[in-house]
Write a structure and sequence with these properties.
The protein has helices at residues 2-15, 96-100; strands spanning 20-22, 37-41, 49-50, 53-54, 66-69, 77-81, 85-87, 116-118, 129-131, 137-138, 142-143, 156-160, 167-171, 176-179. By secondary structure, it is mainly beta. The strands form four sheets. Strands 3, 11, 12, 13 and 14 form a five-stranded mixed β-sheet that branches. A four-stranded mixed β-sheet has the order 4-5-6-7, with no helix packed on it. The longest helix is centred in the N-terminal third of the chain and has 14 residues, at 2-15. It is globular and about 45 Å long. The termini are far apart.
Length: 181
């Protein structure tokens, strides 16, 4: 019932094109810069956003799609789509035990056109969570160090705010990979 309430609240906020902050009422964006944010997360330092585990990678997807490619449980990688699939991990991860907890398509009757859209009434993009905006972005959860995350889940994404080491971090089930601007 709690999940239904959260989803209902998100849908109501989405319908009004409001900014959504998950985890608290402040988020991580500076208060004078909230107008450029569609979705952000609490500054809790120990949590991230988990990408969908995909056992069959689509041949084509909407540009900007990010997934955990779990086609092979022992060579999992975080990928994004920009016309072709691009590997963000740079190294194989093992997600065998994590996949045991994930539903299979045979176990779940997936609704093909089900999706949550934020920032617009509709979207042609195919995804579970779709952020539609020409002026707003998503801010990833902030952590000071990935070592503070006790049990990172495969497919986790965070932004590391450690002084001198600010970067995007993705966890493939075995190892963290870091992307620095």
């Amino acid at each position: 019932m709690k999940k239904l309430g959260i989803i209902t609240a998100l849908l109501i906020m989405t319908a009004s094109s409001a900014q959504v902050i998950i985890g608290d009422d402040k988020g991580t964006a500076p208060s004078n810069n909230k107008s450029s944010v569609l979705l952000e997360f609490a500054n809790t330092n120990n949590k991230g956003i988990i990408l969908p585990y995909v056992r069959t990678v689509p041949a084509s997807a909407t540009e900007g799609t990010i997934i955990l490619d779990a086609t092979s449980a022992t060579t999992a990688r975080v990928k994004y789509y920009n016309g072709t699939w691009v590997d963000l991990s740079g190294q194989d991860g093992t997600v065998t035990s994590a996949l045991a907890d994930q539903p299979t398509q045979a176990a779940v009757a997936e609704i093909a056109d089900a999706k949550s859209i934020m920032g617009a009434q509709s979207s042609a993009a195919d995804g579970v969570l779709i952020l539609e905006s020409t002026t707003k972005a998503m801010i990833l959860p902030h952590v000071t160090d990935v070592q503070n995350i006790v049990r990172p889940a495969p497919g986790m994404m965070v932004y590391v705010t450690k002084a001198g080491a600010k970067r995007l971090a993705v966890f493939n089930g075995s190892k963290w990979s870091f992307w620095k601007p």
